[in-house]
Q: What sequence folds into this?
C-alpha cells in the first residue's frame, strides 16, 4: 500500500510540475526562458521516471544509480528517435519500458527485460500489445483533453491520466522480468501441496 501511495504521489507531483511549466506560455524559440523551461521539464521527467522504476522494483534495496543511468539513456534515445521520425516513437517507448522498468528490481542485470520474451513469450507479446494500445490511448486522451479541457486544467488531467497508465506499464514490465520461468507461482511448495 505504501508503494502505491508513493507511486500516486510521484504521478501527481510530476503532473503538477509539468503543469506549472506550461503556465508561463513561453514561445517556442531559442529564448533563455524557453530553454530553462525545457530543461526543467526534462529533469522532472527523468526524476519521475527513476522514481517509478525504483518503486516498481522488488527484492530488497534497488540500485538507484543503475535506474538513473537506464532512464537517462532511454530518454535520450527516445527523444532522438522522436526527432528523426514520429513513427519511431511508440516502438522506442515500448523498448525503453521493456529494458528500463526491471532496473528497479534488486539483483537483476540490465538485459533481464528483454529476456522476458524468451522466458514468457506469450505473456511478453500480450504485454507488448497492451503497451502499444495503452500508449495509443494516452495519445488520444491527450488530444481530446487538449481540445475539450484547455489550459492548466487540461495539462494537469493529461499528466495524471498518462502518468498513472505509464506507472502501471512500468510495474507490468518490472514484474514480468522477474517472474519465474514457466509461470510458477511464488507460493512456497509446502503451502501449494496442501
A:
Amino acid at each position: 500500500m505504501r508503494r502505491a501511495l508513493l507511486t500516486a504521489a510521484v504521478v501527481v507531483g510530476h503532473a503538477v510540475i509539468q503543469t506549472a511549466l506550461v503556465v508561463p506560455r513561453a514561445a517556442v524559440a531559442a529564448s533563455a526562458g524557453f530553454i530553462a523551461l525545457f530543461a526543467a521539464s526534462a529533469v522532472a521527467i527523468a526524476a519521475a521516471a527513476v522514481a517509478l522504476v525504483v518503486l516498481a522494483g522488488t527484492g530488497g534495496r534497488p540500485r538507484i544509480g543503475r535506474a538513473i543511468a537506464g532512464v537517462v539513456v532511454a530518454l535520450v534515445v527516445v527523444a532522438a528517435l522522436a526527432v528523426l521520425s514520429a513513427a519511431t516513437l511508440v516502438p522506442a517507448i515500448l523498448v525503453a519500458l521493456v529494458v528500463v522498468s526491471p532496473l528497479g528490481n534488486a539483483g537483476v542485470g540490465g538485459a533481464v527485460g528483454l529476456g522476458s520474451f524468451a522466458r514468457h513469450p506469450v505473456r511478453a507479446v500480450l504485454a507488448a500489445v497492451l503497451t502499444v494500445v495503452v500508449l495509443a490511448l494516452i495519445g488520444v486522451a491527450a488530444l481530446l483533453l487538449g481540445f475539450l479541457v484547455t489550459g492548466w486544467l487540461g495539462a494537469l488531467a493529461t499528466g495524471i491520466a498518462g502518468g498513472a497508465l505509464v506507472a502501471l506499464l512500468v510495474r507490468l514490465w518490472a514484474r514480468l522480468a522477474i517472474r519465474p520461468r514457466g509461470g510458477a507461482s511464488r507460493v512456497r511448495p509446502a503451502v501449494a501441496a496442501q
